[in-house]
């Protein structure tokens, strides 16, 4: 067990969880949803960050690591991406959840409150983010190179930045659904706890998954891209004018790209 890697992963995913909690704390200052344009910018920004992170922090390292061992790099990159997207598609079908702003829940019908379904939706889509950060630190520990740790830190920072509006996007709708301000904050913050859990679990399993690290990196990328294409970009472009959502995507992509290339 590499305890330093576990500590780094806990710190990285702990930061993303903290940013979710800070975003959820916006419910203490605003008692209604943010304006449509601001919401589009936030959603687009999150999409841009996740696209850039999928490419620079996950897919490219997966390809390079495989090619360094003399095997075709595209095989685990393509295969892992497909598996990651299929996993989220399956979870969308099997787990009941409700996206903010939607009137109908997805997944099997269950008799639970709308607030519970709202929290489940965000929690489900936070899983690949936690995996991505945890895998990056696990890979850094295996390689023993400070550049890999810098890249993992860049990924954690990028995920944390986009988690801030995500926390607000769950706590404010919960408040509108009738929950108290305090409970809305707690549920919004806890929706990001899954990132910490899955980030640590990935590091704990690092020894067993080391031969499959390129596949796991690509798996996390595929899961995140599924979230982007299925949820974030469509929601960022609702309405007649979608320029704000588009600009949000570009700004998020640019920021994550600079973070990754400058630090990693």
Keywords:
264 residues, mainly alpha
Describe this entry's structure for a reader.
With 264 residues, this protein is mainly α. Helix content is 79%, strand content 0%. The longest helix is centred in the N-terminal third of the chain and has 33 residues, at 36-68. The protein is globular and about 55 Å long. It starts with a helix and ends with a helix. The mean pLDDT is 84.
- Beta content comes to under 5%
Mean pLDDT over the full residue set:
84
- Rounded to the nearest angstrom, the distance between the terminal CA atoms is 24 Å
Q: Helix and strand string, N-terminal first?
A: HHHHHHHHHH
Strand segment count: 0
User: What's the helix count?
Assistant: 10
Indicate the low-confidence ranges by residue numbers: none
Summed up:
The chain has 264 residues and is mainly α.
Topology diagram in text:
Blueprint: H1 3-24, H2 36-68, H3 74-94, H4 114-143, H5 146-176, H6 181-190, H7 193-204, H8 206-209, H9 213-236, H10 243-263
Helix pairs in contact: 1-4, 1-5, 1-6, 1-7, 2-3, 2-5, 2-9, 2-10, 3-9, 4-5, 4-7, 4-9, 5-6, 5-10
């Amino acid at each position: 067990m590499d305890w330093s890697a576990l500590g780094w992963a806990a710190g990285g995913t702990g930061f993303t969880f903290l940013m979710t909690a800070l975003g959820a704390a916006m419910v203490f200052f605003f008692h209604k949803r943010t304006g449509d344009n601001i919401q589009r910018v936030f959603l687009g920004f999150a999409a841009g960050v996740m696209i850039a992170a999928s490419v620079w922090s996950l897919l490219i390292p997966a390809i390079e690591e495989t090619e360094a061992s003399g095997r075709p790099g595209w095989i685990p990159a393509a295969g892992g991406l497909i598996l990651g997207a299929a996993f989220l598609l399956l979870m969308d079908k099997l787990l009941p959840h409700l996206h903010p702003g939607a009137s109908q829940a997805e997944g099997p019908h269950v008799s639970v409150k709308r607030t519970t379904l709202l929290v489940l939706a965000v929690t489900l889509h936070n899983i690949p983010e936690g995996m991505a950060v945890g895998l990056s630190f696990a890979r850094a520990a295996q390689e023993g190179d400070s550049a890999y740790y810098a890249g993992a830190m860049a990924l954690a920072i990028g995920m944390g930045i986009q988690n801030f509006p995500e926390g607000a996007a769950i706590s404010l709708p919960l408040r509108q659904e009738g929950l108290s301000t305090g409970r809305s904050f707690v549920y919004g913050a806890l929706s990001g706890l899954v990132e910490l859990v899955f980030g640590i679990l990935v590091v704990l399993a690092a020894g067993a998954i080391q031969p499959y690290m390129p596949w796991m990196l690509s798996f996390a990328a595929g899961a995140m891209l599924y979230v982007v294409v299925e949820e974030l970009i469509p929601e960022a472009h609702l309405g007649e004018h979608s320029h704000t959502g588009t600009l949000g995507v570009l700004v998020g992509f640019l920021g994550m790209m600079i973070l990754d290339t400058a630090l990693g």
